[in-house]
């Protein structure tokens, strides 16, 4: 006790704004469930594992910790109180997703005070403890942990699978008096013979089948077609309605699951007495869980051999975070990322968790070490005849909260696009790589664009950086067209006969060769509205796109997502034949040739484009990015709304769709309005109030697109070099940032998406490790003898060094 009292001046009582990390070590994935428990500093309230506490003490000189140990005991089947406790919503972070953790186990916690460096222990609670220590520990134990606070703040206003927003149509929904009454059972679609996945339109009482799911099950889209014809917005899924007046209500107008507090009244209009109804069908959340567990035979755990050890650690799916899991598993196979974040452990440990850049580096290092160390990938002990259910995996909660902070999509539990997340991660790496080699340079390459003025024959070369090679999928080059046509004919006949599962077990996909995609990328493109400085007028130009440099790792992004004519997201269900060895020498750019003449520099520059404000407002209201709207109006010459919409549909999958618009013929460094960046006045005012200069504030706002919160983080993470970089050099790439070598590549990984759009479905990645393919399906890690290489979304090729 005397040893403890002499350190009393270092003890602090947590205040309202203090973050208390009592769920997990800030440097690794140890928790109170680990064998040594978790040590929470009574000074900083950081949680430390046994592996890190001594080093933390040497760096901070904070000696007193509360050791929390938690043990759990599996409950028997009888102890789980029957179906009443079965979960009816998505259990975030739970393998299987249905029974929550607290219902499968009983937990008990023990505490003791630990004093370093000698690891002297004092039991807690015990008599004679100073009140300051008792108060500090009491607040720590009663407070909500920092991780849970961050998750709650991030999810504010989002749908987590149960909580939904109240529909704007709920209070004043029009209901027709057409005399229709709905029976309590024996429902059938009004337009086909389906008897499941039926939706009751609350306006006119029609019963129609729902959307078709990506595996071929579901409905025939009659409910959504009815909305498109009538505009009646709300429908409830029959079979999900309970006696409590709950049910799955979908708003076609709001394009989301919603809450209808007047559902009982709306149902009674159609003669439905909820006391007679029982839930007979799965909710949309349960169906999504089912679909996420299927993914075809190739992801069925029983058909694969689980693998354990360093580099084979799974990541728990934290509420549709499979896109994050797949991307992070992929990048931590690359030496650049391992050397930057995992190897320099002492350097990362010295970081200050209150600095955004340092916090980012810590969490990257923590995740990398967790995946590669093997500490959290040990084979579970199974009794005789028990099935090996695989590892639990590590849960990247702190990383997910940090990397999604301030981002409306990645901070939520909605499914997101893996390609967009990858670019978001690269943006964070760029912001937080001050005075360090950015590991993402291993992906970076230069794209060469050659424009030839068709009137003068003179040329212009422009260059831009890229991290992924986006390839369109030419559907007119299908190699098995006859087979696909025959399959579709048989499937249509079966569906008309009422067999809604037709074709599910023997899907025939269109096959396309990668060479066809590459030819589409390199073919000559005719550019309209090209401003030729040789003519000082607009004309047409021929554009050729090539690669000026070839990175160490080439990421190929197959553009499988687009929109159809009714603006619904559409995924191309095709099989692209990806070779194991790839020669891209045909993509090598040549640069300016001796027999070519450059277009002259125009002293007056390109005329500022004029946009039709009326059309602009209409397409902006549809939710398209401003820069994409500028392109649509420019290339359609303001001809009208339909022309602009058609252009947007055709180009929505372009990798530069939302990038700043540079009129064809202008210098690539020009901005979309031919003027310098204009920082927001409110952003400048706020940053000035924090003591930053005008140059610093402008630079930060420019780097973050006038996002004030991100601008503050950016300044703190770039303070050392703000004054050493001239403002006029912003945006210019240096040749040293681009690695180059031969054009021979080997396939070493790919990420696959199963689902009908980026907003639903599931991501799985396959990685080539030690000459064998390994599947990473969230927390499941297994060898895979026949990986589905033709079904990938993002592919990673590694250069073959000659």
Automatic annotation (TrEMBL):
InterPro entries membership: Papain-like_cys_pep_sf, Peptidase_C19_UCH, Ub_carboxyl-term_hydrolase, UBA, UBA-like_sf, Ubiquitinyl_hydrolase, UBP13_Znf-UBP_var, USP
Positions that bind Zn(2+): 189, 192, 209, 222
USP domain ranges (all copies): 313-800
SUPFAM superfamilies assigned: Cysteine proteinases, RING/U-box, UBA-like
EC number: 3.4.19.12
Group of enzyme by EC: hydrolase
Catalytic residues as annotated in Swiss-Prot or TrEMBL: 322, 762
CDD domains reported for this sequence: Peptidase_C19B, UBA1_UBP5_like, UBA2_UBP5
GO molecular function: cysteine-type deubiquitinase activity; zinc ion binding
Keyword entries, A-Z: Hydrolase, Metal-binding, Protease, Repeat, Thiol protease, Ubl conjugation pathway, Zinc, Zinc-finger
Organism superkingdom: Eukaryota
Record-annotated UBP-type domain positions: 165-274
Biological process annotations from GO: protein deubiquitination; proteolysis
This protein's record includes keyword Zinc-finger: yes
Transmembrane segments: none
Annotated UBA domain residues: 610-651, 678-718
Catalysed transformations (reactions): Thiol-dependent hydrolysis of ester, thioester, amide, peptide and isopeptide bonds formed by the C-terminal Gly of ubiquitin (a 76-residue protein attached to proteins as an intracellular targeting signal)
Xref: Pfam families: UBA, UCH, zf-UBP, zf-UBP_var
Keyword Cell inner membrane applies: no
Family: Belongs to the peptidase C19 family.
Protein's name in the database: Ubiquitin carboxyl-terminal hydrolase
Organism this protein belongs to: Microctonus hyperodae
